[in-house]
Amino acid sequence: MMSYEVKVATLPRGLPQPADLTVVPAPVPSAAAGEVLVRNRFFTVFAALRTLLGGVQGAPMPPLRVGDTLFGPAVGAVVTAPADSGLRPGDLVQHMLGWRTYAVLPPGRWRPAGAELPDPVAHLAQGTTAYGALTRAAAVRPGDTVFVSGGAGSVGSMAGQIARLLGAARVIGSTGSAWKAARMPGYDAVVVRGETPIADQLAKAAPGGIDVVFDNVGGADLRAALDLANPGARVALVGALSGQLDPAGNGGEAPVEIDTYRLILRQVSMTGYSAHGDDRIHAEWISRFAGWLRDGVITFPYHRVDGIEAAPQALHDVLTGRHLGTMVVAV
């Protein structure tokens, strides 16, 4: 048997290109005592890899260097597992060692991908962050108007639907594509960057102001939303795509000028949020997600490509906004 891994061939200048990555063969690894060996079935391609490839220090995940294997959320089938793990060959688990055919998982670095979701790929839905932010950092209340920046991406495509299910009366999203704007699930209105000023579009879409901002972009999107924030509005900062997708930067900063005095007068709260490593939020999300899927009130938008050799192009497609929802590679 042979395994394949996607490695960094060269550190990119600007946005990563497919040629910056290489798919190389490698021996199938062996699991040591206490470890689990899995054969990956699916993994996701996420925009934050731009930051890691840019060499940014201080991010939640370490920077990538030439020769490193990329990593990210994955679902794999167990090949071998310790007798006391509760796992059997063929069981599915979630972990963070995607971008390779086989992965060895240390203790505590995996969780079961149970049968509560009808499709194993659904375990890769980026809903934990969206759900956590919209129930904790900027809790949605019945009747709220919610704005989701980057509403067509892997997180935003879930956030719009979740906001609606949590009781929002009006949900507005932003995207950079008119094609995506016509297909984004859960939104009452979508503003499109690059057509007319986003502030003008958003003012028309939210004439009564905004109560909750789920910000995945920063930049002009965040500034326009804060100008329309109602008294007591809640803002969850979950992403920085304006910086991560800037070809002139390194993906590690997303500066924006805002009027803090106005926020003080309106008593607007802003909270940076990440659900990374929060097992309690993840379990709560999976339970809600499973119920919503059974009831047919939520979908998981994703674009699938087949074969690990397609992964380098898939990353470029994510960073250039080619597809709606989550990018999934079927290994």
From TrEMBL:
- This chain belongs to which protein, by name? NADP-dependent oxidoreductase
Q: Which domain of life is it from?
A: Bacteria
Q: Which SUPFAM superfamilies is this protein grouped with?
A: GroES-like (SSF50129), NAD(P)-binding Rossmann-fold domains (SSF51735)
Q: Where is the Enoyl reductase (ER) domain?
A: 14-329
Lineage of producing organism: Bacteria, Bacillati, Actinomycetota, Actinomycetes, Micromonosporales
Entry keyword set: Oxidoreductase
Q: Which SMART domains match?
A: PKS_ER (SM00829)
> Pfam families, from UniProt?
ADH_N_2, ADH_zinc_N
Chain ranges passing through the membrane: none
Which stretches are annotated as coiled coil? none
Q: Which InterPro entries match?
A: ADH-like_C, ADH_N_2, ER, GroES-like_sf, MDR_fam, NAD(P)-bd_dom_sf
